[in-house]
Design a protein that fits this description.
Elements lengths: L4 E4 L10 H9 L2 E4 L3 E5 L2 H6 L9 E4 L2 H13 L9 E4 L2 H6 L10 E4 L4 H8 L6 E7 L5 H9 L2 E12 L12 E4 L2 H10 L9 E5 L1 H9 L4 E5 L7 H13 L2
Parallel strand pairs: 1-2, 1-9, 4-5, 4-7, 5-6, 7-8, 9-10, 10-11
Antiparallel strand pairs: 3-8
Helix pairs in contact: 1-9, 5-6, 7-8
Length: 248
């Protein structure tokens, strides 16, 4: 079956030069964006109940932009001035670049991984004398704490924000040719909002092993898995599938 409509379960890109814009124009498909999940901050008083004292840490491990935003939000709510000596360990260049929203980049000690957490852990391993804080969501991949424990570093987790399922009642239906998911929580939100959802002719695109597994466990067929060696991004995977589907 040909592909004409796609629903991406994330917020719309903030720039016009998004890969999704190129995909829509090149393949003549309609792409809508509706976030199936969103992030809500944990209040500072609740963070204190986790026995998190920001002044006790000498280094921050930042795995996402959300982690950056909510660390500095909580610091402000706690009236804690982040010292210039604080070290920042960022999982990727994108996270490190985003950090400039809050600090003067060239005046801080910032260490950057390539993309994955195991790659960042190789840098963290060199700084075993630091006291690390890991700002995180209530949902955290096991690989992160497991890796830090294996390193033997002094670290604590602070749950500073939560991943919450969005209310999709304004979305009358999910009758799209392709639904695109990026997390198990997105799959969970689909069935919470549409408990009677049947896949039928809808194709499912899923990014990451955990998302693919969640889709399969929910009884869905994952037609478009990503990343793969041939299609490392979701837009590349979608484009490859659409070309094949629409040439028939």
């Amino acid at each position: 079956m040909k592909v004409k409509t796609i629903l991406v379960s994330q917020p719309a890109p903030k720039t016009d030069n998004s890969p999704y814009t190129d995909l829509s124009e090149k393949q003549k498909v309609k792409i809508d964006f509706v976030p199936f999940i969103h992030v809500e901050g944990v209040e500072a008083k609740e963070v204190r109940t986790q026995k998190i004292d920001l002044s006790k840490f000498t280094a921050i491990i930042l795995t996402s932009r959300n982690a950056v935003d909510h660390f500095f939000r909580v610091a402000e709510e706690m009236r804690f001035t982040v010292p210039d000596s604080m070290k920042y360990f960022c999982q990727s260049e994108a996270v490190a670049y985003y950090l400039q929203k809050y600090v003067v980049y060239r005046k801080r000690k910032i260490y950057v991984g390539q993309r994955t957490f195991p790659e960042l852990s190789k840098i963290i391993k060199k700084y075993k004398d630091e006291k690390f804080l890991l700002p995180s969501s209530d949902k955290l991949k096991d690989i992160v704490p497991d890796t830090l424990n294996d390193l033997g570093v002094n670290w604590s987790r602070g749950i500073l924000y939560r991943t919450v399922m969005s209310d999709l009642s304004e979305l009358n239906d999910v009758f799209y040719d392709i639904l695109v998911f990026f997390s198990p929580s997105g799959i969970e939100s689909l069935f919470k909002n549409f408990p009677d959802f049947k896949q039928n002719n809808t194709r499912i695109a899923a990014f990451g092993d955990s998302t693919i597994k969640a889709a399969t466990n929910a009884g869905l067929k994952c037609n478009i898995p990503a990343p793969t060696p041939e299609t490392p991004s979701m837009t590349m995977a979608l484009e490859k599938y659409i070309k094949q589907a629409n040439k028939k």
